[in-house]
Amino acid sequence: MSGGASQSERLIRRFRLIGGIGLPVGTVLLGLLWGGRAALAFLLTYVLITMDFLWMAHGVRRIVTPGKGVPKGALSSGMASFGARVLLILPILYGILIALPGEGPAVAAGIAGPVFILAAAGVLEVGG
After folding, report:
1. Helices marked H in the chain — which ranges?
2. Cβ–Cβ contacts within 10 Å for residue 111, how many?
3. CA 124 – CA 128 distance, rounded (Å)
4. What are phi and psi of 69, to 5 degrees?
């Protein structure tokens, strides 16, 4: 790697850029196709899943420092962070589904959107 940002930093930057475009486009598209409640369910879920990924990426970067290995206690800290994320995200997703009944497909789209965008950011990273 030449100077500048690391591969993971470039991936996260691409994820944020593509995700920043995908959020408003997806929200408007679902709003037009399925209505305002679906757009709201998509928006809330998309933001939640995106924040979860960024939280996870931050934790991984804190734990795994290139060239230094894994610091003592980092693995247990990482597992605790994972558990905290699950304990926060699942009830919030449940709350979205309860608050917006019948909008399960929009919630699924809100989960899938960031996952597909992460895959696209990875493909773009590999492709150059």
Report:
1. 7-34, 36-63, 74-99, 104-127
2. 17
3. 6
4. 75, -165
